[in-house]
Each structure stands twice: as C-alpha cells, then as structure tokens.
Design brief:
By secondary structure, this protein is mainly beta. The chain has one helix and eight strands, in the order H-E-E-E-E-E-E-E-E. The protein has an eight-stranded antiparallel β-barrel with strand order 1-2-3-4-5-6-7-8.
Length: 209
Amino acid sequence: MENQHVKRTLLLLSAAALAAAAPLDAQLSKNSGFIANLHLNGSSITLTGDDNETEAGGGLGFLLGYGVNETITIFFNFDAAQAEYADEEDDVGGDGNFTLAHGDLGVRVNFGSTASKARPFLTAAFTGIVEADDGEVGGEEVEAQVTGGGLTVGGGVQYFFSRRFALDAGVSLTSGSLTTVTIDDEDEDLPVGFGVTSARVQVGVSWHP
C-alpha cells in the first residue's frame, strides 16, 4: 500500500509539473514589451474636391512601440514614399516626382492570445503629412513643402514564425488637410487648407525582444 501511495504521489507531481509547463510551451507569440518593425509601403494621397487627383508611389517605413500588455501597444510609425504627380509635372519646375511622408503616433489593439501565431490588430493614430519637392523657380533652386495632419485608422495581422519575430501586414487610411506651405524655410499658412485622404499598405517584419 505504501508503494502505491508513493507512486500515486509521484504521478500527481508529474502531472502538476506538466500542467505548469504547458503555458510556456504554448506561448507562440508576444506583443507585450518593446516592438520594432521595418516594412515596405505603398502610399497614395488624394486631394478632395472637384478634381480628386490621386498621387501614389512606394517606399520604406519603420515602427517603434511598446506593448503595455498583450492587448495595447503604443507606437510611433514613419512612412516615406517616392510618388509621382498626377499630371507628371510639379509646380516648382521639378521632374514630376515628390516625397510623400506620414508620421503616426497612436495605439494598436491586438487580438488573440499568446497561444496563437496569427494576431490581428486595429490601429488609431494622429498623423502628420508632408509633401516635399525640390525644383526651380525663376532660375533658382528651391525646396518646397506642403504639410498638414489628420486622423488615421487601420488594421492588419501579425503572423509569428517564431515567438519574437512576425510577418506584419497592415492597411492605414488617413483623413485630414494640408495647411502650411514652406518654401526655402519660409512658412505660409493657407487661408483654406486642402482636404486630403491617404491610404497606405505596409508589409514587413516585426521584432519583439
């Protein structure tokens, strides 16, 4: 009887140890703590109004963030793309190309658990928008920028191929306005801002150390 009691105790201890280890073995993803992301982006911007001209191009971007827990991540994201003017000619005598940049400060809400490899998410952010171009006016080289801001919403999914690395794909939609023109470091506020909407597709890799 004593031997049976010892065996039963050992079996119970073994089962408890396996149960305690199971959550660690099942942890397939991680969103808490620091996150860094590098990605490709396709960006477009549309002036709202009578013409509704859309200008688009591609580029690179990065995201830095911190997961307060597995659900909430605070992040800063930056995307830069080389876009083409819709009419292939800009206002300052350039070659029809310009830099389109977005900077986002926002919150990402992650879904799923650490036992899931696929982790969908939704995002909301305040966004700064910059269109920058170099060209020639009256025979002189000038640097011109149009800047503004707006609100962004988006979503996507991370697929973890290891606990700390994930393929990261998302879409962001921004609604806002361009309100300031800068030429050679001289700013001028526009009396009436240009309403804009922009869209971005981002595909890259995230690291969760």
